[in-house]
Amino acid sequence: MINLVLFGPPGSGKGTQANLLAGKYNLIHLSTGEILRGEIAKKSALGLKAKQLMDQGFLVPDGIVIGMISAKLDEYPEANGFIFDGFPRTTSQAEALDGLLTKKNTSISTMLALQVEDRELIRRLLARGKDSGRADDQNEEIITNRIEQYNKKTAPVQNYYSKQNKLGEIEGSGSIEDIALKLNQVVDTL
Ligand code: AMP
Prior knowledge:
The chain is of the alpha/beta class.
């Protein structure tokens, strides 16, 4: 099984690249952001709770996203592997993910961490906001808060995987195709 964590700040291209990798290597793409937006669209209790935090650029509680990922892993017992996009976003989530995968006799193969400068992230997110319809892409204050949350709570997750010798850093500026090639080169070595 190949299990990848596609990591990076908001606007680093995780969703786009995770889609391409999932297609190329026949992996199940799990995006916690997408699952949460699905809950918001359904107007479920969980969705309504998450929406207030997401619209302001704050993280939703660990227990909620860990529960969602646990349910998804159970949904695909025959999967060739998974690509986690936007998860784990805290060290507690990373620890919980290891626990869930161990129970299924598997583990994370590698973390692919996209590196993109803050100014480029803000530019990309504001551009995406014009047609994404996402409340959290619409204004610079919320985008800046998302980047701050990333630096404070999410960036340390890289150390967690680095200690396990599973951190692969990839320059994330450039064309979608060039970045995809660099990611493929790493995955091909696994
Ligand atoms: P994304 O689509 O990955 O940019 O996520 C959009 C928003 O959903 C984030 O800003 C958070 O509010 C929430 N979210 C997504 N994934 C997580 C996660 N793993 N932990 C906590 N909050 C999350």
